[in-house]
Amino acid sequence: MHTDLVTALDIGGTKIAGALVDGSGTLLVRAQRPTPARESGERVMEAVGEVLAELTASPLWGRASAVGIGSAGPVDASAGTVSPVNVPGWRDFPLVERVSRAAGGLPVELVGDGVAMTAAEHWLGAARGYDNALCMVVSTGVGGGLVLGGTLRPGPSGNAGHIGHISVDLDGDPCPCGSRGCVERIASGPNIARRALEGGWRPGQDGDASAAAVAVAARAGDAVAVASFERAAQALAAGIAATATLVEIDIAVIGGGVAGAGDVLFAPLRSALRRYATLSFVQQLTVTPAVMGNDAGLVGAAAAAFAARAGADGAVPVQV
Question: What is the pLDDT, as a whole number, of residue 13?
Answer without folding.
Answer: 87
